[in-house]
Amino acid sequence: MAPKKKPAATTSAPDNQAPSESQAAQSIPVDVEPPTGRKRAPPFEWKDNDYEKVWELIKEMGVKTNFTILFGKKQDEDAENKTEDEVGAEKRGSKKKGKNKDQTNVKAGGAKKPAAYQAIAQKIFAEEYKTNKAAVLKRVKNKVEGLIADYKSHAKAFYSTGNGVNGPSDNTDDQGGFSHYIPPEGPCHDTPPVALNLWSEVCKKFPFFEELHKLVGRRANVVPIVINGGLGPHGPSAIHPQMPSDEETSPPGSPAVETGNIGPIIVPKTANAPPVETKPAAKPPVSTPASAKRKRGTAHAPKPSMSLSTIKSAAERAHKKRRGPEHEFLEIARETQDHLREDRLRKNRQEEIGLLLQQRGDILKQQSSLLDEFRLGLLDQETYHVRHGTFGLQMDSIDTEISKLRAANEPQTDRRSSHSSLADMSSSDGFGGTQISSDEDDEGEDD
């Protein structure tokens, strides 16, 4: 019979004494890792195989369903060639026949950006998506947003002032705005040589620019909208509906006059000029309190009916000669031009309001997409609150601009016609302030 082995001696610390560091280290197994809430995705390099996965990602972004969710609906290429009757017949036919599943998927209904990220991830990372869904979705989302941000930073060279090929001196557009327009399909025969050189330079720096321009370049917030006005007294005009610059410069040919160069005292031309005689100001009338009783037989001053300036202006207006028909025609033409100018400004403001409303709708969609990403676990709570606050500030600024434009478009009452009609009545009837004052004097005597 084999002898029994004695158990190893163990030292136990008393209840009131904490275990030593060596004992604590021995109690925790080395092979067991602390539990984590989410698996970490293995590091992924997008540069592998000459950016193969990046090109696949851009290709999947251009798929009709994903493009509709990420960038909006594509305009039908043949829509411009169709007449109104053909478009109406197609609409009526689609209502009768109904829509198939492919059309519903293309229009994307209420689909959000996470749905597009999910479709792209399942396509290019099929195996990893099965084991680590959240990490792959986050990887695709970050790469899509990074590509769009890089595209916008390079696209600024085509519509910001001072970004020519050879430096700031090449750009002669002092007004700012869109200096070189490149259509979404790329340069064409109308593209100037300066824009072609700039296009090739940007494509060398950022190889994905050409493909991303076909996708992102169709959006209005990347390609600024230009409102071309009619031919006015200063030539044709082009309005860029964008925020004004912080530095306001005065137009050429009209230098600003500094107020410090204007003296507050007027000096006479000759040194021996006689002094100007000034009359003492008239004493103001003494008003008696209403509660004081008037004595019988005492005369009192009449009540002032109208001011002296009103009486003088009415007298001068009565002695003015009637203007001829040519002056009336000039006045009518001037008023017509003013009305036309106001109508053009009102239309421009209305178009700006429409653009701001479109931007406000895009921000609302981004807020909804942000909430979906937070629910899927792609964003933590702090990042969600920061981005949601940024969207709120943008919407507040847009609402302020819309309220200003709507207040400017409200019709204002024209007081010129009312003043002229009163003046004509006073001059034609032959009474000014005299008749009114006599009536009020009679009322005073009756009192």
Automatic annotation (TrEMBL):
Signal peptide: none annotated. Residues 73-92 have a biased composition (Basic and acidic residues). Residues 438-447 have a biased composition (Acidic residues). Residues 419-428 have a biased composition (Low complexity). Residues 15-26 have a biased composition (Polar residues). Residues 1-46, 70-112, 233-326, 406-447 are annotated as: Disordered. This is Uncharacterized protein. It comes from Sistotremastrum suecicum HHB10207 ss-3.
